Amino acid sequence: MKALFYFILTIVFLGSCASSTTEAGVAKESLSKYAVGFHLYEHNDSMEVLIGDKHFVYAKSVKNTFVISSSTQLTFLKEMGCFSDIIGLFDANIYSDSLLLDGLKKGKILSFKNAASPDWEALSAHSKSIVLGYKHFPLHEKTVENLNLNVVPINEYMEEHPLGKAEWIKVIGVLSGKYAAADSIFKTIEAKYNAVKSTAKQNGVKVMAGEYYDGYWSVPGSSSYVALMIRDAGGEYLVKNISQSTLQMNKESFAELLKSAQYWRKLTPMDWQAKVLSKEEVRLQFDVYPTQMKGILYCDVNKTAYFEKALLHPDEELQDLITELNGGEGKIFYRLIKVD
Amino acid sequence: MTSIKHILLREKRRFRLWMLLLLLIIVLFSILELSLGSAGVSFVEVFNPQDDYSKFVLQEIRIPRLLTALLIGGALSFSGLVLQTVFRNPLVGPSVLGISSGASLGVALVTMAGVSSFSNSDVPKVFAAIVFSMGVLLLLFSVAGRFRDNASVLIVGMLISYLAGAVVDILIFMSDNDALKEFTLWGMGSFSRMNYGEILVVSVLLLIAYVIVYRNRHLMNLYLIGELDEVNEKKKRRLVFLLIIIAGVTTAFVTAFCGPIAFIGIAIPNLMRFVLKISDHKYLLPGTVLLGAAVAVMCDLLSAMPWSDHSLPVNAVTSLFGIPIIVFMIFKSRHKTL
After folding, report:
1. A4 within a domain of the structure (yes/no)
2. Within a domain: residue A86?
3. Range of A112's domain?
4. CB contact at 8 A, B116 and B125
């Protein structure tokens, strides 16, 4: 019995030693403030990043080259002044950046085909570069491991907080050995956003969002990016208690919510010329019943390069929303189509 | 002689009873479909809408959806019955000839080519679906003319289906997220996409198809038991050609407007045969159309989940309903044909 007691005591002691060693090895608090998809810890000479169950440690002065798989990653790298560190990309057709396309044409930047089915052979020749992973890479985990590739998932698209998306620049900062610069850029974004947010009047203007896809309405949930942005702009988002980031709604449920909306936020990849619409026109065009509607907050995602620009300029998106929810005209992303 | 007369009379009585029951079920489901929904338009308002919004919900959302479900359920079941007769196989359905796959290919090309769903207008997709499914039908016939047996037509149809599927896979592989979402949702089927004009077009088409097939019901009965093979080969070939065209066109239009709705076309004719216990097309044709309509409305009611903000894809519900019936039929028909 005594032996058992000493055995348990030894185990408890060793266990506490192990945990205290870990505690001593990392800074106690994560440096991420809004993003929930990563944790960041600063050590004396290195930075440690936790993304899901992946764990990365980089020296503070590290110099890396990158293979990118989304246009938002390009935005981050350009903002960090690391464009010249891009050595390759996936899905060349998704990019419109002329500098990048020029590099691709001249062979300075390589194409590794599709992210869904990469050219592994070519990629393995660049195993020292960091592959910035996107949605498809969890599918290739085994191959990535076998080829000893260096893939870091950049999951900014999963963040719900507008500043959470932008905060992923800190991860890019760590990977490029420029954390301090990234942190400073983020602090500026945060300050600008909060400054704009503080100007919003909480007037409870009722706002709905949603896009039509073949018989269903795809509607952002009550804790989504859109919902938070609308709330920060002083509006009331009409979708409540829906925890998913997006919900597929039937026509009737959507019409029921849109009925009491004063504004409808719409993102589409098309240039909509309309300036004023009657309620009847809105009803006929979208099969909805806009009794209270004053306007449509309309964003042409292609023309405004919305997904690339709003990422690091959420303050400009918020400013547009605040202006339009108060009857004005947005300048950067949104155009107000008045509804009579 | 008396016993044959007695059997026929019993069949007739059973048929009438089932028709009456089906009509009652359709009325009941229709009232439920019109009364239930998140907009809170009540049962009483179905007959006397209190305000403009209730009128809008009924006229623009619930009534077109109900009519679409009735129409599409009837049309797919009808098309399935016709094809099962043509191929003398109870496990054949409207999708086997590659027509649904042709429609999918058309829609995939349109969505991946970037024609966005900017408004509720489905015109480009419907147009592409009709063009491609009719193209598949024409291709099928240009090839099938060289074969003498229906099994070869079936095999060619399946091969065309695989081919279309392969092209769709390539398009999916290369598409962006929005296009993929649009195509995926189209493939899940919906009864909420048709407007009154489209409903009218498909109704007229189905009516014409039904009248033509019903007028040939005796020939279909003879064909089914193999008697037409011996009497008149030319007549048989003409009948088969006509029936495939009718089933093909019906499937093409239905798929174009509502997406590929699964299992109704296979399951319903089998269920009707099972309840009526006969293979006479005089009874099977109207019975199948009514049962298909009733089941489609029931599936739509369940998929709409009026008690919730969520809704399920129609295809998920029709599959949950249809697959057990098909499994049952496979076990039942191991030693039987039609």
Report:
1. no
2. yes
3. 33-191
4. no
Task: Say which amino acid occupies B171.
Answer: L
Instruction: State whether B309 and A249 contact (CB < 8 Å).
Output: yes
CA distances, B314 to each of B146, B259, B320 (Å):
38, 10, 10
DSSP A69: -
Alpha helices in B52-149 (DSSP H): 52-56, 63-86, 99-112, 123-144
Q: Which residue of A has its CA nearest to B193?
A: A215
Cβ neighbours around A106 below 10 Å, total = 8
Nearest of A271, A292, A212, A163 to residue B182 by alpha carbon = A212
In-domain check, residue A22: no
Shared domain for A317 and A272, answered yes or no, is yes
Distance CA B122, CA B127 (A): 8
Q: Distance between CA A80 and CA A172 in Å, rounded?
A: 8
Q: What is the dihedral of CA B175, B176, B182, B184, to 10 degrees?
A: 60
A71 with A161, same domain?
yes
Give yes or no: residues A149 and A212 share one domain.
no
Nearest to B129 by CA among B178, B89, B183: B183
8 Å CB contact of B182 and A213: yes
Domain extent at residue B52: 2-335
Cα–Cα distance, A290 to B120 (Å, whole number): 15
Per-residue pLDDT reduced to its tens digit, B129-157: 888 888 887 887 777 667 667 777 778 88
Average pLDDT along chain B: 85
pTM summary value = 0.78
Distances from the Cα of A329 to the Cα of A129, A207, A332, B277, angstroms: 45, 16, 10, 69
CB-based contact, A258 to chain B, within 8 Å: no
Region of residue A93 (phi > 0: left; psi between -120 and 50: alpha; otherwise: beta): alpha
Listed range (A20-24, A72-76, A277-281, B208-212) with the worst mean pLDDT: A20-24
Residue A12 lies in a domain: no
Q: How far apart are CA A154 and CA A135, in angstroms?
A: 9
Are B190 and A213 inside 8 Å of each other by CB? Answer: no
B222, amino acid identity: L
